[in-house]
Amino acid sequence: MPDRGGGPTGPRIRAGRPSRGVRTLLMTLGVLAVLGMAFTMFAGFWTDWLWYRSVHYSSVFTITLWTKIGLFFVFGLLMAVAVGVNIWIAHRLRPPLSAMSMEQQSLDRYRMGIAPYKKWLLLAVTALVGLIAGASAAGQWRLWLMWVNGVPFHQKDPQFHLDVSFYAFDLPWYRFLLGFGFAAAILCLIAAALTHYLYGGLRVTSPGARATAAATGHLSVLLGIFVALKAVAYWLDRYGLAVKSSDFKATGNWTGLRYVDANAYLPAKTILFCIAVICALLFFATLWRRTWQLPVIGFGLMVLSAILIGGLYPAIVQKFQVQPNEQAKEAPYVQKNLKATREAYGIDDTKVTEYEGKPTSTDKTRLRSDANDAASIRILDPNVVSPTFQQLQQMKNYYAFPTNLDVDRYPDKAHKEQDTVIGLRELNLDGIPKNNWINDHFRYTHGYGVVAAKGTEADSQGQPVFTESDLPSKGDLGTYEQRVYYGEKTTTYSIVGGPQKEIDYSDDNGEKTTSYTGDSGVNLDNPINRAAYAVAFNEPQILYSGAIGKGSRILYNRTPKERVEAVAPWLTIDGDAYPAVVNHRIQWIVDAYTTSNGYPYSSRTTLGDTTADSLTAANNNRAVVAQQNQVNYIRNSVKATVDAYTGEVKLYQWDTQDPVLKTWMKAFPGTVKPKSAISNDLLSHLRYPQDLFKVQRELLTRYHVTDAQTFLTGSEVWQVPDDPTNDSGSAVPPYYLGMKMPDQSAQSFSLTTTFTPNGRDNLSAFMAVDSDPGTSDYGKIRILKLPTSRTVDGPKQVQSQFNSQQDIAETISLLSRGHSKVEYGNLLAVPLDGGLLYAEPVYVRGGELKYPLLRKVLVTYNGRTAFEDTLDEALNKVFGVQGSATTPPDTGTTSPPASGNPTVQQALGDAQKAFDAGQQALQGPNGPDWTAYDKAQKDLKAALKRAEEAEAKAGKNGTGTKS
């Protein structure tokens, strides 16, 4: 029998080598791993393409993609070729082998080790640097597109008299090319030096010459290229002075040339440019004169000049010429900065008017009448009443309203425009009965309906007066598509339109189901699409779930700001998207900006800081989405809409003169619709954007002055006051309301704010911008400047006085007893007859009520303060006269009238009991009992209604008696 144990006649198995089956298995696993990685990369690319195609902005995806690919290959190839050629040249210029020194003996081992792999090593090195350079260049696609498509501003800078487009579009690209050139020169120099050293062209410890003539010439050329690039950098630095930011003690952040820049740095850069050119020529001369002496001397001279001319000389000019007479020296340059900054931020047409700050009339009746005409004072604060909307109109736990509601304009039944607080009943996955994959992504997919309330009214119980409410929503807005598939709170994906029915809403008759019929989202009929989304969303069930079938579509990227940012990645997005019913559909309206940080002489601002206020501090979703945080030019160039049902995104050109938008429209043709495509219905809901207003008001704290001397003294510097209604320490937000400035004949929808002197709390100015696009004054900024000879109370002082008055403090203490909590609404300021009228709603949230109700209104004017149940009552008390437009007394705080009709008397008796019960509930031993109070108010309302019906019936029969 043959020996099967591995003897002489048995097979020999090589130790340590895997069997053929194992090798096959390992190879298969390796191939599968590579395919898996490739498919993962493909899934991300494929799902992005499908999404852009689904929103009909595939051109944005393709243009961006091909631009990135082009930059990647061009600059990657350039870097790879530059490094590879220099390595090859250094290898070709290697000296012949000579007597082996100790240094060469050590290097010989490395030379022998890499000799068989020289080509592969060269390929690996060049590929690596090429990939890094290409990836870096691909990230600069915005600079490339702006440079290629840039259009002129038709405005020249005051120093070099070049069009602003040179600084906005050209200079950034030139700086990128220069940076790429420096990187290439340094990498080539390092690669060539290492190659020369490895093959003996450079010696460190060997006796004799340190470098061969060939190595000297090669490295000198590379050093000459580097110095030549430095010369170009010096030349570009001259223009860079026009957009250079610096800290200027007299004004803080500063952009543009100052005296020392124009008279020291600018000539210094020119001199250094000439020296660098000469130094570069000396390096190139080593090709003929193989010595380092002249280039080294030239390079040393350039370094010394950079220290003396570029550093020491400007410091001497600043110390001995500027500082002794700073205002006179800097004034001409400050004037240029003032003009450029005001132009770049769109505040150059701001109208500043002196305002007395105290009433010019003593006619109380007239003042009371003018108070009604001055503004539609909004007592419903959209930033406070969201929990009230939630409690009264949520209907189902799987619906929710955003933390901050919005203010818009809608006509009332008399077709008169009124300020309206509006919010959408959006999907809230945290409130669904049971969370699982089917419920979260198939059954509960959308919100339902608009809820709106009058901004200037509240009912007798302090609740909003809804103009659109219930489920399905009904009211003044008419008929419209109520399903909300896209909203601010919709942050997860949904799969709709397939065999699985969706919950629409439920009522007394049970659940109503629906199936999505829109064309939004990506179709999942294709198994490749399903596999790609299963990988992209890390959700394997998408691939095999039976809930997905014919017609199924996946919806994602569902917040309005997210969708606009994706289809227009060159835009900066306003932090507050707001809903409106337009042409029978719910549309999200999103304001978008074009920005630049290359406007010469215009001071830079940080968007994240200047747009922050007490609302963004409490709700990060209100923060601006900025493409570049540091900017010195901004325009509200685009108005965008997102359909709440279909997710359709439309971009409309709003600023038809903006060269930055024209540049992007040229780069992405067909993506932005003309301004003429905006319908009248949509136009009526557009408004001046908050974030732009906040940037402008921050700039106007300093740039409201137009005189350089005043600007330099800093005597007119203002500040945006902190919000007096909370303790966040953040700036007061601007407020929308219908109001009339002194030079206006009628109210206009406006965005307003106040200013205080720097470091003080009294009022220094009031600012408003016309926010109604239906008027010719849209975007006009008006500032009422208060006198400096006497003080006018600012918001913080008004709030302090309000809290310190004994009778008001006692009422507040009563309202906040027990578990109740007082919440202050927006403190609105309104110009009135030379003075400022302040109005503030006061809410109470307490007891079993988990939502705030309006209980009081504060009004103060000319030193007189009122704290009453209604706005009209407060105005009446402040002015001491009854207003002609006074509303009927609040039934919650006024005793019912008497009547001679027995039936009416019985009803009024019940009303009196309910009234007394309500008063007792307010004065309970443990604080107000809001549950009992609400019940009493409902009984009171019902009793008064019975009395009214009985009175009407008696009057109809001719037996009524006058009450």
Strand and helix map with partners:
Elements: H1 20-54, H2 58-92, H3 102-114, H4 118-138, H5 141-149, H6 164-198, H7 213-240, E1 245-248, E2 252-255, H8 259-284, H9 293-322, H10 326-344, E3 351-354, H11 364-374, E4 375-376, H12 386-393, E5 399-400, E6 406-411, E7 417-424, E8 426-427, H13 437-443, E9 447-448, E10 450-458, E11 464-469, E12 474-475, E13 483-484, E14 494-496, E15 502-507, E16 510-514, E17 522-523, H14 527-536, H15 541-544, E18 553-555, H16 560-567, E19 572-573, E20 578-582, E21 585-596, E22 605-606, H17 607-610, H18 614-618, E23 630-631, E24 633-643, E25 649-653, H19 659-667, H20 680-683, H21 690-703, H22 708-713, E26 718-719, E27 735-739, E28 748-757, E29 765-770, E30 781-785, H23 795-804, H24 806-815, E31 821-824, E32 828-832, E33 835-845, E34 853-861, E35 864-868, H25 871-879, H26 902-922, H27 930-957
Helix pairs in contact: 1-2, 1-14, 2-4, 2-6, 5-6, 5-19, 6-7, 7-8, 8-9, 26-27
Overview of the structural elements:
Among the domains are: 48-204, no CATH class; 212-344, no CATH class; 492-558, no CATH class; 902-957. The chain is of the alpha+beta class. The chain is globular. Helices cover 44% and strands 18% of the residues. The N and C termini lie far apart (130 Å). Residues 1-15, 885-899 and 958-963 have low confidence and may be disordered. Helix 6 packs antiparallel against helix 7 and helix 26 runs antiparallel to helix 27 (930-957). The strands form ten sheets. Strands 3, 4, 26, 27, 28, 29 and 30 form a seven-stranded mixed beta sheet that branches. Strands 6-7-10-11-12 form a five-stranded antiparallel beta sheet, with helices on one face. Strands 19, 20, 21, 24 and 25 form a five-stranded antiparallel beta sheet that branches.
